[in-house]
Amino acid sequence: MKVLTIALNTFKEAIRDRILYLILFISIFFIVFSKVLSMMTVGDELKVIKDVGLASISLFGVFMAILIGTNLVYKEIDKRTIYTLLSKPIHRYEFLLGKFLGLNITLLVMIIIMSIVFFGLILLHNSKFEAKFLIAILLIYIELAIITAISILFSSFTTPILSSVFTFSLFLIGHFSKNFKFFIMKTKAPIGKLLIKILYYILPNLEKFNIKTEVVHNLPIKSDFVIYSLVYGIFYALAILFLSALIFHKRDFI
C-alpha cells in the first residue's frame, strides 16, 4: 500500500507536468505527419506510416521517461520533501519502487494515447489491424521501463542534467550493442577483449525490443524471441532498481 500510494502520487504529479504534454503533442504531430510523408514517398505508403508511427512512439516515449524520470528523486531532495517522506515508516527502496511504478503508469497512459492515434491512421488507410502492432508497442513499453529504471538510478545520486545525459547515452549505446561483438573480434589484446565482453553483458541490449523492421515489412516474429525479450527487460529493470536502492540507501540526507 505504501508503494501504491507513492506510485499514485507520482502519477498525479507527472500528469501535471507541462513538458509531458508538449512531448505528447509533438509525438502525435509526427504520427499524423507520417500520413503526409507516405503520400510524398514513392512506394508502399503503409510501410511509411508504420515506420514513422512506431519510431515516434518509441523515441518520444524515451524523451518522456528521461525528462520526467531524471527529476523524480532530485525534485524531492531539492524541495526537501524527502525528509518528510523518510521520517515516516517507509523504506527507501519502497520510495524508489513507488516512483518507478508511478512513472510507468504515466508512460502507459501516454503510449495508449499515441497508439490510438497510430491505429486510427492504420485503419484510415484501409489496412486491417494486426497483432504485430500490439507486440511491437509492448516491447517498446518494456524498453521504456528499462530507461525509466536507468533514469531513476542516475537521479538518485546526481543532477537532472547529468542524469539525462547519462541515460540518453546508455539509450544510444543500447541500440548499438551488437557492434560490441565486432570490437571483440577485432581486438587482439586479451584484456581488451575481456573488458569489451564485460561491457557487452552489463550494458542494456535495447535492440531486443526493436521489431519495427519485422512489423513494417510483414516479416515473421518468433514467439520465443518475444518471450525472451520480455523476461530480459523485466529482470534488467529490476536489477537496475536494486542497484538504485543500494545507492540511495547509502545517501545521507541529514
| Terminal residue distance | 26 Å
Low-confidence stretches: none
Structural class per helix/strand content? mainly alpha
What oligomeric arrangement do these chains adopt? single chain
How many H/I helices?
Answer: 11
- The radius of gyration computed from the alpha-carbon positions, rounded to a whole number of angstroms, is 20 Å
Number of domains: 1
Mean pLDDT over all positions: 86
What shape does the CA trace take? globular
What's the order of the H and E elements?
Answer: HHHHHHHHHHH
User: Total number of β-strand segments?
Assistant: 0
Residue share in β-strands? under 5%
Residues in helices, as a percent range: over 70%
- What can be said about the biggest beta sheet? none
Question: What can you see in these coordinates?
Answer:
With 254 residues, the chain is mainly alpha-helical. The protein has one domain. The chain contains 11 helices and no strands. Helix 8 packs antiparallel against helix 9. The chain is globular and about 60 Å long. The relative contact order is 0.14. The mean pLDDT is 86.
